[in-house]
Task: structure prediction
Amino acid sequence: MRHPHTRTTRTAPRRLLGALTAGLLCAAGLATPALAVPGQNPAAAPALADGLALTPPMGFNNWNSTHCRADFDENMVKGIADLFVRKGLKDAGYQYVNLDDCWALPQRDADGKLVPDPARFPDGIKAVADYVHSKGLKLGIYTSAGTKTCNSAGFPGALGHEYSDARQFADWGVDYLKYDNCNNQGVDAEQRYTTMRDALKATGRPIVYSICEWGENKPWEWASDVGHLWRTTGDISDNWGSMLSILKQNLPLAPYAGPGHWNDPDMLEVGNGGMTDTEYRSHFSLWSVMAAPLLIGTDLRTASQATFDVLANKEVIAVDQDPLGKQGTVVSSSGGRWVIAKEMKDGSRAVALFNESGTAQRIATGAAAVGLPDAPGYTLRDLWRHSSYNTAGTIAATVPAHGTVLLRVSADPHWAAYPPAAELGLDGSPLLEAGTPATLTGTVTDLGRTPARRVSVSLTGPDGWTVRPASPTTADALATGRTLRTDWSVSAPAGTPTGSYGLTLQTRYRSPAGQRVTSTVPLTASVVVRPPTGTSYVSDLTWLSATSGWGPVERDTSNGESAAGDGHPITIGGAVYAKGLGVHAPSDVAFYTGRACARVTADVGVDDEKGTKGTVAFEIWADGRKVASTGTLTNTMPAQPLTADVTGAQVIDLVVTDAGDGNDSDHADWADARLSC
Result:
């Protein structure tokens, strides 16, 4: 439970994407569409016929925010219950306030009973349950299907005590059990989890049963009549790479989900600080379109308003909680441009346009592709902007880096009551050298069945930047499918520091009925500098973007663990290197080379810090083209030399994949990596 990087389920390759350059996405390991799992007909699998969890459970779990720290106590639990009511989360559908590990003493009492920690819960669990129930909410608790729980303090697990522990939980008024997988003594998983199912049933109390088996024994194939939800992966971490990896593991399992039996890709990290607001909106949108349990993992007592705004978006929650109970499926995923569609009970489709890549991209699909019938027009509802439009059938948007546009699209006979949808886009490279003008082309396209009238467009940049139009910025009208294209000269002042800067593309127009519409797209431009002439260590250069499957990319040390700066000297096969990059698969580190460099060289391999574990493959990409790669490398192999000709490339990507067997302990090194320019 506590160390997902050492316990990730073996899966198909999960690779991250590089930077978009000159309109080309670095094609490093582009994700393939998640497909239905072959074999049995999971839709026909039985489910517990107890009326529980007919929609995915919603609530709170303390682990992601507190772990086993002292601030996890009854005051926190009561405070969360209070906030559920005060902040409108209860009204939005959240109902479970769940305790994770560390609530008990390490030893049972003389009668073999569990004992709540008197320092954390001086009034006992029943008193906490009574308080939570008084707020119209429900209480959850945690234990493990083993002799001890996952925490190193060795709290008692329920293996061999299932009926006694279940009875205690029921007597305390517990409404939800998370049942972990640590210290299981090698006992068959299905047997262990079925025993607790029977023990809970024997209490006579309705208790939602969450199987936290990490997906190791494919519970989706056997647990639909054992538990109400089952974890499909190892633990989530509060970073982009972890969220993305779990998304890709959970998406193919859509056929196994339904009312009373849900795939669980783990708790939400929204608000914990390791991702941007854009990434957290993607996280929440994608979990909702996957019909995942929505268990808040941040300490709401210190949460920002932006966090509450994400967690309390009722239109997004309605996608998750739709009573039809369908998990969204992948329509397409080429180039990191994901389209995921979820059938809704009213016949509409929730459509997530998700941009996996590091820069804005156009993502498009159509009404037929997402399963809607042929119709004269469609209503398109933007669930984050809370605005409705009409479309002739095209569903498209320019989606910011790591962003998600979440829509609800329907064959609505009243589509003409809404203004036409307009798609904004920006063509051209978002990489600028300070003091040198670059040309970008803005586009406004009418996707609606009705015309857009009195159309205007503007592009703005940071203070001090020069942004000037070089062609018309207005049009009297745009018919369906027609585009207003405007060239813009964009220049960052000389001396502007390298980094990412915001641009805003905006259009204003009117519907035939006179409705005024303003639409904006936040975009990013990167100010870059060419590497110095000669040969440089890449660890001394500024990267464009960097992603790693566990923890950050490290300079001149190994990956270490999840914290920044916790690596060790880079060591491959006993050889120690002073320079290089330490990463964890899947990883992608992108550098701007400005068409001025010729060669990349490195000694690559699996770092010694994980013993005999780890299998990876290394790739070098130049402007979306793979120019060098290794085969599968293991920890038993010495460092392998890798050289690539990158002549003429604007951007290079150093990519590490999991070699197709999951990313368990895939600590990889780009030792002595150098760039010659």
About this structure: The radius of gyration is 26 Å. The longest helix spans residues 189-203. Residues 1-41 have pLDDT under 50 and may be disordered.
